[in-house]
Amino acid sequence: MLCALAMVAQTADLFQLHQLNPFYFLFTAGGTVTSYNLHWYFTDTKINHAQSVRYEWTHQHQYLLLPLAVFGGILSVISFYFLDQYRIALLTGILLAALYTAPKVPGKLSMLLRKIAIAKTIYLALAWTYVTTILPLIITNQPFNLHTIAFIIHRYFFIYALCILFDYRDRKEDIKQGIRSLITILSDNGITILFYLSVTIGIVMAVLFAGNANALLKGILLCIPLLIATLFFKKAKQSKNDYLYYFIIDGLMFLSFLLTSFQQWSSFLWP
């Protein structure tokens, strides 16, 4: 949730979205809590909970996940009321998030989705990009030009590169559950190419965004988390350590926000 809020705040900062409705942050927080807890609620944690602190905690506290999802849903509904003029755009974001979790929901439809959900990581990255980038721009009536599109593409491939690492970690479990994705289909070399291609596109788009905004420093700062991700690529392929994934790799999203806020901090501290 904190990463999602930080990325919305980063978008608002980079595009100076002073008119962004504060209830959108509540919608993002509630939606993230709902989506995250539902996803884990329908995840079979018996498969490898003995190998993972996160899986073990979830397995022991599964009774908390549904109430937390309901609580997040209530927050989203309340904020939805104050953002009702954007209901179609908001519902699109909800649908994108649901497509990622849908293959885990028990039932015949779920079994079908597991066979065809090759693009599940694409859905997830698109959902995060849509909620943290596109929706704030829509709500504040920003023009979609080369400047904004470059940032949207950067944000997408930044998130997608991180998702590749998480999917590689869960590769064996996804295969056992019959969940298909590019990561379960591609060879190790193919996954490596996909990862570095995503990083490269993300960096190129950050530079293009910076060039159009006359903000070279912020463009460079946007590239740093992507470069750090490459340093952990080999380690992530060999390790399932929860602290590596949930603090370092996930933390790169929050780091991106912190880095691009550097100019505001420096001007405040050293006027």
Description:
- By secondary structure, this protein is mainly alpha-helical.
- The chain has one domain (2-261).
- It has helices spanning 2-14, 23-41, 53-60, 62-82, 87-101, 108-116, 120-139, 146-169, 171-176, 182-185, 188-213, 216-231, 233-238, 242-249, 251-260, 262-269.
- It is globular, with a radius of gyration of 19 Å.
Question: Could you write a compact summary of the structure shown?
Answer:
With 271 residues, the chain is mostly helical. The protein is 79% helix and 0% strand. The two termini are 32 Å apart.
Topology:
Elements: H1 2-14, H2 23-41, H3 53-60, H4 62-82, H5 87-101, H6 108-116, H7 120-139, H8 146-169, H9 171-176, H10 182-185, H11 188-213, H12 216-231, H13 233-238, H14 242-249, H15 251-260, H16 262-269
Helix pairs in contact: 1-2, 1-7, 1-15, 2-4, 2-5, 5-7, 7-8, 8-11, 11-12, 12-15
Question: What characteristics describe this protein?
Answer:
single chain, about 270 residues, mainly alpha, 16 helices, about 80% helix, disordered C terminus
Count of DSSP strands: 0
Multimeric state: single chain
Distance between the termini: 32 Å
Helix segment count?
16
| SSE series | HHHHHHHHHHHHHHHH
Largest sheet: none
Using the alpha-carbon principal axes, give the shape: globular
Measured by DSSP, the beta-strand proportion falls in: under 5%
Structural class determined from secondary elements: mainly alpha
Calculate Rg over CA atoms.
Answer: 19 Å
* Count of spatially separate domains: 1
Low-confidence stretches: 267-271
Mean pLDDT: 83
**Helix fraction?**
over 70%
